[in-house]
From TrEMBL:
Span of domain SH3b: 28-100
Keywords: Signal
Parts of the chain that traverse the membrane: none
The protein's name: Bacterial SH3 domain
Pfam families assigned to the protein according to its UniProt record, in alphabetical order: SH3_3 (PF08239)
Gene3D superfamilies: SH3 Domains
High-level lineage: Bacteria, Pseudomonadati, Pseudomonadota, Gammaproteobacteria, Moraxellales
The organism of origin for this protein: Moraxella cuniculi
Segment forming the signal sequence: 1-25
Length: 100
């Protein structure tokens, strides 16, 4: 599996499990985990089939890079970093409330 991260603003291409997905780049910002009934899984790459490397509780602050990744089922994912632990990975976008 190879993930290409953007170095400049614009569009980039990611490869996860051999499936390419279009993403939109931006500048980054703070988010809070919301509406997770159980701890939110942080995964090593976008997609529920990828290994879990950590979890987040509702209310946990994270930073994200405003890039939307799409898995093979069309679900949206965000690349995040949890400042307190330094864990970096991917979570489902629907569980994040982000500053505009």
């Amino acid at each position: 599996m190879k993930i290409i991260k953007p170095l400049i603003l614009g569009s980039v291409l990611t490869l996860s499990s051999g499936i390419a997905s279009q993403v939109n780049a931006g500048t980054g910002g703070w988010c809070t985990v919301v509406n997770a009934r159980t701890p939110l899984n942080i995964r090593i790459a976008p997609g529920a089939e990828n290994p879990i490397i950590g979890t987040l509780k509702n209310g946990s602050p994270v930073t994200q890079d405003y890039i939307t990744y799409y898995d093979s089922k069309g679900r949206t994912w965000k690349h995040i970093i949890q400042p307190s632990s330094g864990i970096e990975g991917y979570v489902r976008a629907k569980y994040l409330k982000c500053e505009d």
